[in-house]
Amino acid sequence: GRPVAAVRQRSQKMIFESAERARLQVLPERAGHMNTGIRSAFGRSGLKAFLNYFTYFSNHPELSSGILRKNWRTAPPLSVLGYNPTEALLSLQAGIDSGEIISYSQLYAQILKKLYFTHPEASRMAVDHNQALNLKNFKFIDESPIDLPFENRAVRAPRTFQEFILQAELQEALILHSLKFKNSTPYQYVPADLLTDEQIYQRFINLLE
Question: Phi and psi at residue 34, in whole multiples of 5°?
Answer without folding.
Answer: -110, 120
